[in-house]
Amino acid sequence: MRQKKDDDDDDEAVHLRREIGLVPAASLIVGTVVGSGIFIAPKGVLMNSGSVGLSLLVWTLCGVLSLFGALCYAELGTTFTKSGGHYTYLRETLGPLPAFLRLWAEFLFIRPAVASYVSLAFGRYVVEPFFAPCEAPAALIRLVSLLGVTFVVAVNCWSVTVASRTQVTLTFVKTFALVLIIVPGVMALAKGKTENFRKGFELEALTLDRLPLAFYNGLYAYGGWFYLNMVTEEIINPNRTIPLAILGSMLTVTVLYVLVNVSYYTVMTPGELLASEAVAVTFANRALQGVSAIIPLLVALSCLGALNGGFFSSPRMLFAGAREGHWPRIFSMIHIRRHTPLPAVLLLYPLVALMLITEEIQHLISLASFARWFFIALATLGMLVHRSRFPRLPRPFKVPLVMAVTFTAVCFFIVGLSLYSDPWNTGRSCALTLTGVPVYYAAVHRSRLPPRWRRLLDYCSKQLQILLEVAQQEVKTY
Predict the structure, then answer these.
(1) CATH architecture of 16-472
(2) Which of the residues 3, 238, 318, 355 has an alpha carbon 20 to 30 A from that of 146?
(3) Model confidence, pTM
(4) Do the beta carbons of residue 157 and residue 345 sit within 8 Å?
(5) Among candidates 45, 20, 21, 23, which has minimal Cα distance to 252?
(6) How far is CA 78 from each of CA 75, 261, 268, 388, rounded to the nearest angstrom?
(7) Which helix (H) or strand (E) holds 334?
(8) What distance in Å separates the CA atoms of residue 33 and residue 37, rounded to the nearest whole number?
(9) Which residues 6+ apart lie within 8 Å of 137 measured at CB?
(10) How far apart are CA 260 and CA 284, in angstroms?
(11) Cβ atoms of residues 313 and 227 within 8 Å
(12) C-alpha angle with apex 42: 39 to 47, nearest 5 degrees?
């Protein structure tokens, strides 16, 4: 009877519930990985690899490298059972300053840049079919993009269950979109349409300085495999669910991506693919004439799924940081009825909207990439350091050493490449990240804020708590 009463008290208490099973977990990974990348990156991979065969090899190797990274995060997620992903792992392995800088960069520009990029792709695919063959108004694209962001924020404020079910639904939609591209291409290949593959490994156009850029484009399309680790405390049986979801989803995505590119090359010549501004739409006009009109809609929904996955996961990093004292306390609070991290979700919205209105789309991904890959490399390096320092610590899942070392080295190589290939946006990214150092020492490490400022912040926090109807967790979930 006492046990039953304790369970009832836990159900009524304010805390994040373990509601994410294996299917929603896999859907979160697939749904965030398969966004706009597979419909944009093929052009960049082919352009920098120089041949059809080598581009397919790049897509395969990018999938393998992403799987290595995802398995590293599976070890981290089962070793450290707190939510927060990158932030938590950096704090546990390398210390509080790198963890705070990751948190600072996520809030200041990584999440706003990535969300703006994906939402602009969503807006473009929704609006442009209505204006073809004319150019769609840029203001209307940005307005529709803002509506997409607003919808996703509202869903994630409303309910964890609704957000999770939305993610599962959109994941099935985007998987259907990829299958719709794969089937006609494979059928044409089976009928003998292989002319684009006969000289697949011509290396005349290959230059070694451009090949890394092909991998850069491919790895961008596979990005998002780390989002599941940000919601560890909401996963049912994480020691089993995290490795299974990561392994199954990344193998599925790799197979789908390679087959999609095979389908592209079966129907289009390399020159036609390079000339296309929207590869999936050009493919549909060639191979899916009867249903080509729905391809832009499916791509838009794919972008919406990636956007939802990002807003479902990233606020948990801010939530975890606030709980550890690295972020204002209000952002570690949960809505008393809906049990969502409402303040953390809402915090990201204004900056995303601002960047959506002011930034150009081609600069957004470059702005975020340097910091994102640098901190991923630090997290996996921290995992290796933690292994050597605490070799007997129980690890429910352990990635082979060669995979961890290979992935870490590739990540640092990508960071170095971005310094060379795009010094302006990389420099901005680095500078914005380093602005967190004085903030950390002034407000976090040893708070030097004047007493009057502290009283003002406490007052604002209390008023926001009342307005948003939020409270601290009442049940420890890790």
Answers:
(1) Up-down Bundle (1.20)
(2) 318
(3) 0.86
(4) yes
(5) 23
(6) 5, 34, 44, 17
(7) strand 333-335
(8) 8
(9) 127, 131
(10) 12
(11) yes
(12) 145
pLDDT in tens, the chain (478 residues): 444 444 444 556 666 677 788 888 888 888 888 877 787 778 888 888 778 888 899 899 999 999 999 999 999 999 998 888 899 999 999 999 999 999 999 888 888 888 888 888 888 888 888 877 778 888 898 999 999 999 999 999 988 888 888 888 888 888 888 888 898 888 888 888 777 777 666 666 556 666 777 787 788 788 888 888 988 888 888 889 999 999 999 999 999 999 999 998 888 888 888 887 677 777 887 877 777 778 888 888 888 888 998 898 888 898 889 888 888 888 888 888 888 888 988 988 998 888 887 766 556 666 777 888 899 999 999 999 999 999 888 888 999 999 999 999 988 987 887 777 778 878 888 888 999 999 888 877 766 667 787 788 788 888 888 888 888 776 666 6
Phi, psi of 3 (to 5 degrees): -60, -45
Name the residue with tokens 């693919």: 273
Q: How distant is the alpha carbon of residue 257 from its chain centre?
A: 17
Give, in degrees to the nearest 5, the angle at Cα 179 between 113 and 147.
35
**Three-class DSSP category at 333:** strand
Phi, psi torsion values for 32, nearest 5 degrees: -90, -30
Burial 317-352 (b: 16+ CB within 10 A, else e): bbbbbbbbebbbebbbbbbeebbbbbbbbbbbbebb
Q: Domain map of the chain by residue range? A: 16-472
Distance of CA 46 to the CA centre of its chain: 23
Cβ partners under 8 Å of residue 61, min gap 6:
215, 218
Beta-sheet pairing, 333-335 with 470-472: antiparallel
